[in-house]
User: Which sequence fits this backbone?
């Protein structure tokens, strides 16, 4: 089977059998297009793709000056694709097994401080659009949901007495996420009445979506990212600020407070605890920073660790 046919077959499997989100499937397609181009330039068939070919492909990505995050994502996509080929007997082994995934954790995700969260949620609200944006930020930080999950929530999904929402996550797996008492009160007493008035004005009172777009339908994925970009500019922040930043912040702040990693895994909807362990790294990073800044010997110890880190080559 041709290389492009194998990729098409894999993407179809991911969509129909594993029920991955459209966004994840799109990322797979983009990443594997790079692999397809690399193989095509060298007249390589995936069936005979070797460890050395996989390493050369990753070196080629490095020459393109891609970010660590992008390179890691492409590596994961290729590894998943070749694992699929191996299971189906298309290749004898996964050529990407020899490539380390350690670089995935080199660059820790952006996380807001608690003060920054307060600043974000304390912005002045003038109209329904401001209130909708505020509730979007509040919901993501309260629940740790992925943006795709948050945008798919309907008003009927809320269980007000339990302060929880049923979420349909990756692979159509259900889980519950929870809201604080203050968040529930604001949603019920402020946002939902304004939402109803907005829908009445737009002539769309039957709309079920919790988060609304400017035309009265469900808030689009692209619009949500624009909202984050505009808020980042308004706040004057230099750090990354995306929907995933609030998910990272939710998890990291739970870990900082001593939450069990298995609980955080369940709330985030991670299939593997290894995915959740990055937040242990983040919490340890914060602990080290506090130590360096406050302990009598912290500054000296911190400098020594920095020298060791520089020499470790990791």
Assistant:
């Amino acid at each position: 089977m041709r290389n492009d046919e194998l990729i098409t077959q894999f993407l179809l499997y991911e969509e129909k059998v594993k029920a991955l989100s459209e966004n994840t499937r799109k990322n797979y397609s983009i990443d594997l297009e790079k692999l397809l181009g690399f193989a095509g330039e060298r007249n390589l068939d995936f069936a005979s793709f070797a460890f050395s070919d996989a390493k050369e492909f990753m070196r080629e990505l490095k020459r393109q000056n891609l970010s660590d995050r992008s390179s890691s994502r492409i590596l994961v996509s290729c590894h998943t694709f070749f694992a699929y080929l191996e299971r189906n007997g298309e290749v004898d082994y996964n050529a990407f097994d020899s490539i380390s995934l350690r670089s995935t954790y080199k660059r820790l995700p952006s996380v807001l401080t608690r003060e920054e969260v307060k600043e974000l949620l304390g912005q002045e609200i003038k109209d329904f659009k401001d209130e909708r944006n505020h509730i979007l930020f509040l919901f993501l930080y309260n629940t740790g949901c992925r943006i795709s999950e948050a945008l798919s929530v309907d008003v009927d999904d809320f269980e007000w007495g339990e302060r929880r929402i049923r979420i349909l996550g990756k692979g159509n797996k259900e889980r519950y996420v929870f809201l604080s008492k203050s968040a529930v009160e604001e949603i019920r007493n402020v946002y939902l009445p304004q939402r109803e008035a907005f829908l009445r004005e737009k002539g769309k009172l039957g709309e079920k979506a919790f988060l609304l777009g400017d035309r009265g339908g469900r808030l689009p994925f692209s619009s949500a990212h624009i909202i984050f970009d505009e808020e980042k500019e308004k706040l004057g922040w230099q750090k990354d600020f995306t929907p995933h930043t609030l998910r990272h912040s939710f998890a990291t702040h739970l870990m900082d407070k001593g939450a069990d990693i298995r609980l955080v895994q369940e709330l985030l909807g991670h299939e593997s605890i290894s995915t959740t362990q990055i937040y242990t790294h983040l919490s340890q990073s914060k602990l080290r920073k506090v130590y360096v800044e406050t302990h009598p010997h912290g500054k000296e110890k911190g400098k020594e660790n920095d020298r060791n880190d520089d020499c470790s080559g990791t």
Observations:
- The longest helix spans residues 181-202.
